[in-house]
């Protein structure tokens, strides 16, 4: 994988100007914050491990990113998930399909057994096997976000960006927002919970590190359930797309809506990738309307 610094571009949304760090352009499988969070693993020599195991959602972006890394490193990749729907199994596109074609081995666990089985995974690991927690929520993610912070400091030296004081990125586990805020104490980092509520997000973050003061969690105006369809999500997705950039349909819409409602200052949005999941989300929106 040959990575060169991702560019920053400008877009207009509702008459406001925003800047976007184009991390979605890094790689089709390993893009956005998954590239950042898994940076340490990418830098790990091949012979350090023979197998990576992880667990979580069937359409997870982290799962696809791990599958891509394991393929390039020739590591076995075993992924544990709850029972997979027949619709997803039949699809010849999307993260699950792509990850399988990259060599992922899948283990389906019944709903009732899932939690206990997952907590047992870390008990019998040999030294050549690495367990990565769901969504890459791991202290190893720190390094990659420090690299991103350094890139931003360089790019903020440009005239147009020199007065920038705030950065935004949506949260699942909160790993990205947390380590970015810790790496850039001189900037405000805005985030919003896309999975669970503010309390749940704080708990997830605190499991990794104390939450720094420059990290501001914006509470969504309405209670959104992860991966459900919302007209206002699709609407802001379309408006962003029209203004020149495609974002993911799971995390980005809620962050953009929160920024429009709660902020006034100039903001740099970190594009966290996730476009590989859009086709199936767009199909669902099409069926709905
Ligand atoms: C994984 C992901 C997130 C959430 O990142 P966390 O570090 O888990 O908070 C946000 N946006 C996109 C597009 C993602 O794929």
Q: What would your notes on this structure say?
A:
This protein is of the alpha/beta class. The chain has two domains: 8-30 and 139-288, Rossmann fold (3-Layer(aba) Sandwich), CATH 3.40.50.1100; 36-136, Rossmann fold, CATH 3.40.50.1100. Helices cover 39% and strands 16% of the residues. It is built from twelve helices and ten strands. The protein has helices at 32-37, 39-42, 61-73, 86-90, 95-101, 111-121, 141-155, 175-183, 198-206, 231-242, 252-262, 278-288, and strands spanning 8-13, 16-21, 51-55, 76-82, 105-109, 129-132, 166-168, 188-191, 215-217, 267-270. A six-stranded mixed β-sheet has the order 1-2-10-7-8-9, with helices on one face. Strands 5-4-3-6 form a four-stranded parallel β-sheet. A hairpin with a 2-residue loop joins strand 1 and strand 2. Helix 10 crosses helix 11. It is globular. The N and C termini lie far apart (40 Å). 39% of the residues are buried. Bound molecules: pyridoxal-5'-phosphate. Pyridoxal-5'-phosphate (PLP) binds at residues 32-33, 61-62, 135, 170-177, 248, 251, 272-274.
Summarize it.
The protein has 289 residues and is of the alpha/beta class. It has two domains: 173 residues, 3-Layer(aba) Sandwich (Rossmann fold), CATH 3.40.50.1100; 101 residues, Rossmann fold, CATH 3.40.50. Helices cover 39% and strands 16% of the residues.
- Radius of gyration equals 19 Å
Number of E-type strands: 10
Q: What is the helix fraction of residues, given as a range? A: 25-40%
The CATH architecture designation of the largest domain is: 3-Layer(aba) Sandwich
The unreliable regions are none
CATH class of the largest domain: Alpha Beta
